[in-house]
Amino acid sequence: MDAAFTTEQSEIRRTLHTALSRGVPPGPPGPGGHAAGPGYDAGLWARLADGLGLPGLALDEAYGGVGCGTVELALACEEVGRALVPLPLFATAGLAAPLITALGSERQRTTLLPAIARGALTATLAVPGGGLATALALTGDNADGAWAGGGRAGGVQARPDGEGGWLLYGEAAQVLDGHGAGLLLVAAHAGGFARGRTLLFLVRADTARGLRRTRWTALDETRPQARVELRDALAELLGDDPDADVAAALAATGRTAAALLAAEAAGAAEAALDRTVAYVKEREQFGRAIGSFQAVKHRLADLYARVQSARSAAYYAAWDPGAGGLALAQCLEALRIVTGEAIQLHGGIGFTWEHEAHLYFKRAASDELLFGPVHRLRARAAETAGLFVPAAGTRKAVGV
């Protein structure tokens, strides 16, 4: 394995770092804030799409993409996480685009992916309830489809409309960038309880009737979430095969998504540490900078080692997405610890809710609630690796 970045990869990082260095602070929900629009700076998104091809970094050139891979997209996510700029990059390029590529028909791919690549269309994945981590097989097995409703009350149910289309009924409560995305990939249960299966459907926000979207006042304002209500909304099946293995496609997408989220978390952790180091060099106590105290140096050294370890795990997962779940656990843990220490080391000002340290702290808490917790990510990684499989000929202990 060659751990060195190529010239092209380094240029992607440098360009994005320059473009996002000033950041775009999130506006409060309500009139005048991001809730009144798409939830991000549309002008910035258009510039990044035109100049860098950001939404299409990992898409094939045949569909208008740049033709790079997960490593390049992870480096972009690291810079987005460092600046905490609200952008629909993860939802569009990390969740929706890979599923369209894996399951979509050729007509759907040639229609949707070029629009995504040039930034004209944003998309997201809508999963019923709070089951996004389960649907992506990050914290548990997704094969039974229970997270999509299981044919019972709740979730999202799909039925044919008699004219070759489908009607969806139900709601998804935590949809990333769901209030502004132009295209929704909705996971729904079809076929009733006896012969039910989980399928993915395309819902165009500009033409679908029976669709209502409401932005939540979320803990992390830099990662907007919405409730999506579907009341017999007209939808199109993703792909031509109703028997496609949707669970396997979601699990594969989940591995890549975990690598991207790990890179985001590593970038955010490093930014929070950099801001803390800069602050302790300036803040004086007893006539000297508090960063000169040995106890503060030791705490910062521990945080630096944790951040570097998290970055190494994130880069490895970008190279091998199979390690995405474990890398995500390590990076989320590092982000939680670093941001908590950052608030402490900022002293009294760090405890004010409006201070930027809380933006990173809220990102840490929100991501662990959405995609974790850390111990479940690690347990799932261990289960997938077969560490919990009993040896042949042994009996499971009673009560274990």
Query: In percent terms, what proportion of residues is strand?
Result: 5-15%
CATH superfamily of the largest domain: Butyryl-CoA Dehydrogenase, subunit A, domain 3
Query: What's the architecture of the largest domain, going by CATH?
Result: Up-down Bundle
Helix-strand category:
alpha+beta
- Global outline: globular
Discrete helix count: 11
Work out the number of β strands.
Answer: 9
For the termini, the CA-CA separation is 40 Å
Largest sheet: 5 strands, mixed, barrel
Short description:
The protein is of the alpha+beta class and 400 residues long. It has helices at 7-20, 42-51, 70-83, 89-103, 106-117, 132-135, 246-282, 294-319, 324-345, 356-371, 374-384; strands at residues 123-126, 156-160, 166-176, 183-190, 197-204, 211-215, 225-237, 284-285, 288-289.
Structure description:
- There is one protein chain.
- The longest helix has 37 residues, at 246-282.
- The chain is α+β, with helices and mostly antiparallel strands.
- It has helices at 7-20, 42-51, 70-83, 89-103, 106-117, 132-135, 246-282, 294-319, 324-345, 356-371, 374-384; strands at residues 123-126, 156-160, 166-176, 183-190, 197-204, 211-215, 225-237, 284-285, 288-289.
- The protein has eleven helices and nine strands.
- The two termini are 40 Å apart.
- It folds into three domains: 7-121, Acyl-CoA dehydrogenase/oxidase, N-terminal domain (Butyryl-Coa Dehydrogenase, subunit A, domain 1, Orthogonal Bundle); 125-247, Butyryl-CoA Dehydrogenase, subunit A, domain 2, CATH 2.40.110; 248-384, Butyryl-CoA Dehydrogenase, subunit A, domain 3 (Up-down Bundle).
- The chain is globular.
- It comes from Streptomyces pratisoli.
- It is an enzyme of class 1 (oxidoreductase).
- Keywords: Oxidoreductase.
